[in-house]
Write a structure and sequence with these properties.
By secondary structure, this protein is mostly helical. The chain has one domain. Helices cover about 60% and strands about 0% of the residues. The protein has 7 helices and no strands. The two termini are about 25 Å apart.
């Protein structure tokens, strides 16, 4: 069962589906990412805002972590597979999507923002496989 944050985020994703035409055009223009990848990054931005005490600017690293958390919440063990299907294989890909959304006028950057802020924030293999939060499994060999 999804938590309140994930449920609100899913509602946001459904609202963003109304923008499918725009995402289709972005995908066709850049020919690298599935249209749902754009909707997902925007949903992760909102997901991150909901977890803060006040809305405000979100930097590249924070957004990348929000994408990881939302992917885990929304897709569970299949998160890496879903993101890969959408063409997203690294945090740099998340940055490219953000900057394509900026170029399309859907997001606004701050002067200090750089695409390099997304470089190497985390490794997908670590985030979605080795560090996956398995419930009921203890990392100390099952003791404790």
């Amino acid at each position: 069962m999804l938590g309140d944050e994930a449920t609100r985020t899913l509602d946001t994703v459904h609202e963003l589906e109304l923008a499918d035409d725009l995402f289709e055009r972005l995908s066709a223009t850049h020919d690298r990412y599935h249209p749902q990848a754009y909707a997902f990054v925007l949903a992760a931005l909102e997901y991150s805002q909901l977890r803060r005490p006040a809305r405000g600017h979100i930097g590249g690293g924070e957004l990348a972590w929000a994408c990881r958390d939302l992917a885990r919440d929304q897709f569970g063990l299949t998160a890496a597979t879903v993101l890969s299907h959408w063409g997203v294989h690294s945090t740099r890909d998340l940055g490219r999507i953000v900057y394509q959304l900026i170029d399309a006028g859907l997001l606004i950057s701050q002067p200090q923002d750089r695409i390099e802020d997304f470089d190497g924030v985390f490794e997908f293999t670590e985030a979605f496989e080795r560090e996956y939060p398995w419930s009921g499994v203890h990392r100390n060999g099952g003791k404790g």
